[in-house]
Amino acid sequence: MKYINAEEVLPRELLYQIQQYIQGNLIYIPKYDNREKWGEKTGAKRIMFERNNQIISMYENGYNIKEISKKYYLSEHTIRKIINKSR
């Protein structure tokens, strides 16, 4: 990675604002990432969120972990993780 003098690339006003927080030290500016997060484009994230809420609701309504795991074709360990994460 090559270091660049901020005075050469940043507008003077922005440089002044940055100097209010840090002066004379190195600062890393991460690459801008405008990609969508996992599952947002396809709706998979929303579907899993809804499924997990149904699992939690079933558990709170008296279903045991074994019954829930059979209904959703998930391991009992996975069902426990979903339930514990909600607490």
Structure characteristics:
single chain; 87 residues; mainly alpha; Arc Repressor Mutant, subunit A; 55% helix; c-mor_Regulatory_Protein; Homeodomain-like_sf; CD3324 family protein; YraL-like
Explained architecture:
Pfam families: Mor. It comes from Clostridium aquiflavi. InterPro entries: c-mor_Regulatory_Protein, Homeodomain-like_sf, Mor_transcription_activator, YraL-like. This protein has a domain at 44-86: Arc Repressor Mutant, subunit A (Orthogonal Bundle), CATH 1.10.10. α3 crosses α5 and α4 packs across α5. The chain has helices spanning 6-9, 12-19, 44-60, 65-72, 76-86. It is an all-alpha fold. It contains five helices and no strands.
Roughly what is the average pLDDT, rounded to an integer? 94
- Helix percentage: 55-70%
Summarize the main sheet.
none
CATH class of the domain at 44-86: Mainly Alpha
- CATH topology category name of the domain at 44-86: Arc Repressor Mutant, subunit A
Structural classification: mainly alpha
Our Rg estimate from Cα atoms comes to: 24 Å
- The end-to-end distance, rounded to whole angstroms, is 43 Å
Q: Which residue ranges are poorly predicted, with pLDDT under 50 across at least 5 consecutive positions?
A: none
Annotated CATH architecture of the domain at 44-86: Orthogonal Bundle
Q: What percent of residues are in strands?
A: under 5%
Helix/strand order: HHHHH
Q: What multimeric state do the chains show?
A: single chain
- Which descriptor suits the 3D outline? elongated
Q: What's the total helix number? A: 5
Q: Based on DSSP secondary structure assignment, what is the total number of beta strands?
A: 0
